[in-house]
User: Fold these one by one.
Assistant:
Number 1:
Amino acid sequence: MIKGKIHSFESFGTVDGPGIRYVIFMQGCPLRCIYCHNPDTWSFSTFSEDKASDLNFAENVLKEYNVEEIINVLKRYKGYFSKSGGGVTVSGGEPLMQLDFLIELFKSCRSEGIHTTLDTSGYTPVLATIQNILANDIQPEVKAHLLKLNELMKYTDLVLLDIKHIDSEGHKEITGVDNVSTLNFLMLLQKKNIPVWLRYVVIPNITDNIEFIKRLKLLADSYANVERVELLPFHKMGEFKWEKLNLRYTLKNTPAFPDEQLNQLKEFL
Ligand code: SF4
């Protein structure tokens, strides 16, 4: 049985989708967001437990699990899920990097009546290469990838899709890649009519320009499957991890985004 590389779990999440969520953080991410609060999920190989404890990360970190093991855990939370309208959220890292595992997991959740939410940047190396996702003349390897994504969508109830920056160049500056893949993924989600919540991190002097927010609104309004847009304030809670991993944190002097300004932007939206 296929195994998933998992960074950690959170058993009573309340901010990653509706109701009470069991959140699974997958290991491995190809992006390098400048504000990432989980840089310890970047590596595709898992840390040893010694290293994890040395880095002072959570105890239940960095292991491989098969779907059956996870479903057995999820079954214990079904009462909470049904009372709160919750379920499982798979986050990361980037969950789409472990597509086969994700398909199997969501398929089993569907059989168990567990609501599934995918929290993603929408980035896959294949989607990033396609200029027109809806064209007919796509390459066989692209087609194979799209088939897998379509299979995943059969069992996905909700997608939380990060729009790291509405502008492709800006997206590149924040993540290291342009936003082609993310927008292609959004198009696929619309085609399959999967509900989407767009998420946008508001960083002072980087993504807080009102013009960007207007464009974000335009994007949201042009997709019937986008149910809401969540503006999330930039915060510095992950900064200590960058230090522990000896990574250079370029937002050291950037303050957290003030609540009052965030509320104004929310009002505008
Ligand atoms: S996509 Fe998520 S996990 Fe990956 S670098 Fe960006 S914020 Fe971090």
Number 2:
Amino acid sequence: MENELLYEELLYFEKLVTDLEIELFAKPYGQDFFPILEWNLRNIFKLRRSMKDKEENEFYFNWLNDLYKRFISIRDIAYANCNIPLGYYLNEQASITHLVYTNNKCSNIKLYSDSGFIFLCQFHQEKTPSLGVRENFGHGYCFGCGSSFHAVQYLMEFENLTYQEAIQLLSKIYLIDIYGNPVQENDPLVLKYRKSLLSGDFKSLLERGYSRTIKRKDTYEVQNSIQKFEHDFATIERIKRHGHIPFDNRRKKYFLRMPEFN
Ligand SMILES: [Zn+2]
């Protein structure tokens, strides 16, 4: 219910900016609520920074500021009160770079943009790598065949799993407890992804991306990337220690059970 109200609010803002012919409200990941929210926040932030003459455009600038504050509060309310789907939460916790890296067949992985890497595509045949994986967006996109995925979708496509199986596997790989998970620790897929996560090669790949990112300009995107890289290093450490993910209490009640599947 709460989600629906917030979604209504987003649609209202979408209409506002469409009237003003601002290209803001692209929806890169379908109709999921939280990715749309994050996408819009980033874009409003970018737009606000890029405005040159703030005095001449005072009205517009103030409007953007209000919009930005409003979105931040929508996000806070949404995170605090809504039942965030487990699949979304796992996408956030997973490292898309790690998942793709596990099945990588190319010896030369290039850096891409401010926060990611380019791999050989795993969904079509190619000789030159064109699968861009951006860690801060938790998202992969192939410029050759158009494949587009986040962590859950990647496992569904690559390992040929259902949605339910993919999130069960993901929670087991990253030691995130969900009640009644039938996937075992010694499942070959769990072992495969754990092995690559703990490999020295993967860690040095992350370090390569991280050391480049922290040299870049201090923008919202770069801050996000840095946080995501640090989160991945922490995940590696946690899995080495074999401790389970510490849920913050506010979120705990929403995540420690399986969602209902239809
Ligand atoms: Zn491809």
